[in-house]
């Protein structure tokens, strides 16, 4: 057999063809008694339905968590989750926090220096010292 | 304190009057099987309490308990979730929206694609038929893409590329990237938005191929040579031995269940939204993934193969020449060797020894030949679109060399 | 009105009758019919529930980002696209922005002018894939190829995940052996570079201790910047035929026109 094939798998490039939002579930926890949940309760009754309608790709769960501060938890496709405590926040601020969770990629926060990361090989090839003419300095 | 016995508690506390007049029990047994009718799906919560109302419970809490218990009992009868549960699952609706599935594809079908054959043996309620269709579509679209884009690709590399695009491992990864979760155990009461399959027993050999079902003659002779061309005939699209369908009651692996699900989604899109939608889905989700085909080659003797190739194509015999070198007598020399056929340079490679550099040069020459790709290749299925330009025959190559 | 158990018995009989190995009884057509029969009545049910999404309402019909015609919806919210800048030019708010960082006004009032040398070399460039583009955003260069992941060093306003933007300012477009260098920029009608916004990311919280001499108080300054992440969908150079179809005009070479340079 002159040549054999090596088995690999293709790697994902979300957004090149189809785009899949990385946030798959948002959990809203509130307390019916606590004062820190007042904004959250307002948000749940007034704004959440519109948010859910705009983002059908996110599963939304609302559950009470008595005697605790209100929390929003985002669950992501890579299996990680992010939680933001929204105690004493106004509904508009809670909406901002929800948008942060919605737009996040789910990855752990990292400090990166290069703006572009690529899977492709270098288009023009890697420079080689053994090729090309000698240039006078 | 004595523990309450649940069974006793439920019958004595929850259903005191139902037991006395025994209507609920009658209703349960008489219409229990009707609730899953496929012919007429008028089947909502309102149909259950019709008869319970007659029992004239005043307390709404008790009523709610009864309804819940009733519903749960209904659900537990079936191996997979009932069809009407699909419209109530938030997970399923989110999945539908996340994949931007066409609105013509109903949630009920999407729920059905999530039920593996190992969870529900009834072919009307599992995804086997959809997966069979989707599997054929995926193989067809991938193979025509590969053959038209790289007409000179050797068959073994085509098999590997097919495996990379639509192999079970890739499809399983795709389903994970869609956010699919597994049900721990399949059942009627499970949320229809999670993947339902029965896991294979630990210790089972997953690579075992049953000799009886293999169409290949002498399949029992494990160490006999199998030619690549016999693989096109006897084996599946990845060049692997075909496995028969799993026996009933047997579980499947995580990977196999997820691959079946992705295939079933493609099949469902084809059935409900038509061919263009299925092809667009394939291009967006499968073809858009990254694969470097030049990494799939594994040559054993590239110099010999190149000589055979040049002889077949009536090129001059390949000659290796040193282009440049440095540090021949040092610890780390570098030779740059080019392979020439007459005046044309076929390939070039650098290595720490002359032999190694020549091998690499021959390898790059062979890859340059095999990875030829015509400008703007068209696939045969593009002719199915409306207003397609007239078909020009695609480039067909002689095939790989025979050594 | 058949019960499911009756159907099951029927199906099992069918299976005994035709015990072929792969997918015995259910033909795809039957599967389809079976599901559509369900659909008819479940529609009425699901309409009564406000929260459960109805499959017939345009649930999947919001594929703002999924359509294959990017012309209709290419990032109308993006400040860098030519359409939006053309419509919403507000000179007062742009006064403090340096001239280099201001969005480019579209130059579509005159047909594209391509020099003869570029026209003769363009087929070589367009035919050799893959391509790269040095796209400029706020006068910073980004070397992009198709499929790259980009994390902009700032949070781009007014974009949502899934939006498609078209980068229209590039200083160079090229392939392995040829490069079209702009003077200083390549005309946006010569190439296409589309990116998809995939979300936002943040850096880990940075804490800087601020101290002053002879004071026991230390101030901690916190910062956690947010960045827009995007994915390059395609990088493409247009062929001469496409350019001529779009009404390009071939002109003579001059000193300050873009040139295609071959690798030495």
From TrEMBL, chain A:
Q: Does the keyword Mitochondrion apply?
A: yes
A single GO BP term for this record reads: mitochondrial translation
Q: Does the keyword Ribosomal protein apply?
A: yes
Q: Which residues form the Ribosomal protein/NADH dehydrogenase domain?
A: 32-105
Q: Which UniProt keywords apply?
A: Mitochondrion, Ribonucleoprotein, Ribosomal protein
This protein's source sits in the domain of life called: Eukaryota
Subcellular localization, as worded in the UniProt entry = Mitochondrion
Q: Which residues form a coiled coil?
A: none
GO MF annotation list: structural constituent of ribosome
Q: Which residues form the signal peptide?
A: none
Q: Name one GO cellular component term.
A: mitochondrial large ribosomal subunit
Report the family membership.
Answer: Belongs to the mitochondrion-specific ribosomal protein mL43 family.
Tell me the protein's name. Large ribosomal subunit protein mL43
UniProtKB/TrEMBL annotation, chain B:
Keyword Cytoplasm listed? The answer is no
Q: Name one Pfam family in it.
A: DSRM_MRPL44
Alphabetized, the UniProt keywords read:
Mitochondrion, Ribonucleoprotein, Ribosomal protein, RNA-binding
- Domain named DRBM: which ranges? 301-371
Question: PROSITE patterns, per this entry?
Answer: DS_RBD, RNASE_3_2
Residues of the RNase III domain: 92-274
Report one GO cellular component. mitochondrion
Q: Does the keyword Ribonucleoprotein apply?
A: yes
Comp. bias intervals (Polar residues): 31-47
Q: Which GO terms describe its molecular function?
A: double-stranded RNA binding; ribonuclease III activity; structural constituent of ribosome
Query: What biological processes does GO assign it?
Result: RNA processing
Q: Where is this region: Disordered?
A: 31-54
Where does the protein end up?
A: Mitochondrion
Q: Which Gene3D superfamilies match?
A: 3.30.160.20, Ribonuclease III domain
Signal peptide span? none
Q: Which family does it belong to?
A: Belongs to the ribonuclease III family. Mitochondrion-specific ribosomal protein mL44 subfamily.
Q: What is this protein called?
A: Large ribosomal subunit protein mL44
Automatic annotation (TrEMBL), chain C:
List residues traversing the bilayer: none
Q: Where is this region: Disordered?
A: 40-89
Locate the compositionally biased regions of type Polar residues: 65-89
Family statement: Belongs to the bacterial ribosomal protein bL21 family.
Sorted alphabetically, which InterPro entries does this protein's record hold? bL21-like (IPR028909), bL21-like_sf (IPR036164)
Q: What is this protein called?
A: Large ribosomal subunit protein bL21m
Q: Which GO terms describe its cellular component?
A: mitochondrial large ribosomal subunit
For molecular function, the Gene Ontology terms on record are:
structural constituent of ribosome
Its taxonomic path starts at: Eukaryota, Fungi, Dikarya, Ascomycota, Pezizomycotina
